[in-house]
Amino acid sequence: MSAPVESPREGSLEAPTRYPLKWREAQFYDEKALLAELERVFDICHGCRRCVSLCNAFPTLFDLVDSSETMEVDGVAKDDYWKVVDHCYLCDLCYMTKCPYVPPHPWNVDFPHLMLRAKAFRFKNGKTRFRDKVLSSTDAVGKLASIPVVTQTVNAANRNPTLRKALEKLLGVHRSALLPEYHTRTAHRRLSGRASSIVNPEPAGRTRGRVALFATCYGNYNEPQLAEDLVKVFEHNGIAVTLVGRERCCGMPKLELGDLESVARAKEANVPALVEMIDAGWDVVAPVPSCVLMFKQELPLMFPDDADVAKVRERIFDPFEYLALRHKEGKLNLAFKKPLGKVSYHAACHLRVQNIGLKTREILQLIPGTELDLIERCSGHDGTYAVKSEFHETSMKIGRPVVNRVKQKEPDYYSSDCPIAGHHIENGLGGGRGPTHPLTLLRIAYGLT
Fold this sequence. Notes:
GO molecular function, one term: 4 iron, 4 sulfur cluster binding
Protein name: Fe-S oxidoreductase
Largest sheet: 4 strands, parallel
Structural class: alpha/beta
Helix content: 40-55%
InterPro entries: Cys_rich_dom
Keywords: 4Fe-4S, Iron, Iron-sulfur, Metal-binding, Repeat
Pfam family, one: CCG
Mean pLDDT: 93
């Protein structure tokens, strides 16, 4: 029988509490204990079903239950539990927006971190595909693909239908999935060695007025113009900008793979470099929400006793969070020169779960002649989920309501804080113009060249 499920009104009304991830303990990887916890949580989810619309993990679970002999979780084969795990891409929306049974509720349901535990178990036991290891090695792939001759070859191959069919057969990358372009002139190559034009930045509230840009692997190799847009916008607002000199992938792709030791190695490389900048008087910003979330939430939960991790957590910001904090103190430049017209704005999942509010919308709404349509729904991409052959069609289905909303509104621009989500929407729209990142929109509105 299912656990007796309370109504949402009877669930916990307190703010969600996240417990540290006990990934160093042997029990974390014990198969019997893991399967028992999966069964317990699946039983609660089956009795509730509030999260059915979020992603495909929950419909997969409920279909397994409903087609079983008992029509309860005890009728589902344990081997089929992994079908649920495969569809979770750790967006955290179930935990932060839907589930009434998260801690401090005594049922202690943390679905995303249970899925992470299952992924870590699978990785530790050598059950992870080579394809998935390659796709999550963003630094290695980016460094190779940014070599001049290699860049042209990779980009051309990604656009060639015949070669994409071969790639699908050999590696399991869906032929119809949009793949990111690579650039020889990476963000670090474009901005390295530059001196900020702001000589005497002013602190305001929590902000110091001096930021070190953590470009992120995607922002560095795939969309380096985002870093340039951020520099232009921030310095137009009197904020000094420099680069974080030493930087590796934040570790989010490896986290989603369950490769927690690689996450730890990335942390050992990144955190000292960020602490060095913070101790020198800089705040930290990053243009990709997943990377900010990694330092704000996941690393502190993996390393709860690390003072340096905690220091980075307190001084890293989403770009629009930073601008909104400055605006609160009267330090935002409001001299906009160009209206944006109609903008369809998709709020990325990994931004929404940071619990900072809709700061991008808050800033863009300040631009005269701008009509913003907010879309709070998952795009279905998740970085690697949407490019995998077995999940691409499902990812397109998840993102269809977002795509349909954009089509309906016929905006002058469509945008997402997550550049990868933006291109997934582009994939659903079926060609034509691509997304315009909110930082780029702000640069356009300021009339900055």
